[in-house]
Amino acid sequence: MRSWVFGDNVDTDVIAPGRYMKFGVEEIAPHCFEAVLPEFARSVRPGDVVVAGRNFGAGSSREQAPAALKHLGIAALVAESFAGLFYRNALNLGLAAVVCAQAKSIRDGDRVRVEAETGRISNLTTGEILTCEAIPPHLMQMVRDGGLLAHLEKRLGRPR
Prior knowledge:
Strand content: 15-25%
Number of domains: 1
Largest sheet: 4 strands, parallel
CATH class: Alpha Beta
């Protein structure tokens, strides 16, 4: 539940560098954020949270960016705002993306608990409670199911 904090306008090429797009997510993930935080991919732990400012995931609509974050074990994304296609790609891949106007009050390394369904973030380091936009129930169900494909397979009764 450690927070990894980034600024405004972080684009998908920073998250998942374009030169690795010919590879699978297993080979892309170790290069997440390498241009701005080289130690990120080897230091992040399952359950950690990425926090950012405005327009997180700008640029190319490559779904490899949220896929690589999910592959590394990121539990949720929190930002003041997301680029539209990135936001939907994250949810479609089963990665919660929470819009939070107060995201910049979270400091790098703070321990946070994100409750995407209720739009509540508890900063366990400072004791602060942030009220954010809740992810709608139908989208949260899709995230819990593991993403759009798994959700549709579940609804249609087809095993993966």
